[in-house]
Structure to design on (260 residues):
């Protein structure tokens, strides 16, 4: 039986979900084949309780807020020994499931949601799926395709390893307190790419350099690099950062002769 306990206050930019139907819809967005789940920022456990309904799933939660951790300990005895009172961005989460694959899910704190995904990228071969609530603008950016205004650094880096689906939009009134923006739930599923066919550090550097000057053509934005022009399409350097696909950036990376 759940104990009565004062609910924690909003923390770290997080807005607690209070709509049961939305929580259920997020929970059932996980693939049926998933057994290991890590929920980030469970807060008061609105999503957690729906995840726990599937007894075949092995669930851990990671929560940095002490009040939330105490609330979870008092209200979810099923999570005994599985509540990690720590920061997902620094905790060695890869060891939680004996180095087995696991899915990441959560109503992510908006102010660190991009950092959470960069952390996911570090373990992309161990994380086949991510289902998360984001600020709508961030969700659209992540799911955006080449040629769109929202397409950016995170779009390219994530789409190199994941297929991304925009699932649904969430209105502010379903949170406590309501955020000033709309939210959205997206799903990332690994596309099977274990390693890119290029120098991945250089790949990331080229992408970041290109988008940091996205109004310029790539010829000007990437002037610190020297390219073997025979290895890239003739017009690629006349384009801008948001016009290139993941494969285009891989081509560019493999065409670098020297960094000036």
């Amino acid at each position: 039986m759940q104990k009565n306990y004062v609910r924690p206050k909003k923390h770290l930019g997080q807005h607690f979900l209070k709509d049961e139907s939305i929580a259920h819809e997020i929970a059932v967005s996980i693939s049926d084949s998933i057994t290991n789940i890590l929920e980030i920022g469970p807060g008061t456990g609105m999503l957690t309780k729906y995840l726990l309904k599937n007894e075949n799933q092995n669930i851990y939660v990671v929560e940095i807020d002490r009040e939330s951790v105490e609330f979870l300990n008092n209200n979810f005895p099923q999570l005994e020994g599985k509540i990690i009172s720590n920061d997902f961005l620094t905790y060695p989460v890869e060891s939680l499931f004996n180095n087995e694959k696991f899915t990441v899910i959560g109503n992510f704190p908006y102010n660190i949601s991009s950092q959470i995904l960069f952390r996911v990228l570090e373990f992309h071969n161990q994380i086949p799926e991510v289902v998360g609530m984001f600020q709508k603008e961030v969700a659209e950016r992540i799911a955006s395709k080449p040629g769109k205004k929202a397409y950016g650094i995170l779009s390219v880096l994530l789409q190199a390893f994941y297929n991304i689906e925009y699932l649904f939009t969430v209105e502010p009134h379903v949170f406590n307190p309501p955020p000033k923006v709309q939210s959205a739930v997206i799903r990332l599923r690994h596309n099977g790419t274990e390693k890119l066919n290029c120098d991945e550090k250089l790949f990331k550097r080229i992408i970041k350099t290109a988008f940091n000057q996205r109004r310029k053509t790539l010829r000007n934005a990437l002037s610190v690099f020297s390219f073997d022009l025979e290895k890239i399409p003739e017009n690629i350097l006349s384009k801008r950062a948001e016009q290139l696909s993941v494969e285009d950036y891989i081509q560019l990376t493999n065409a670098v002769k020297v960094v000036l």
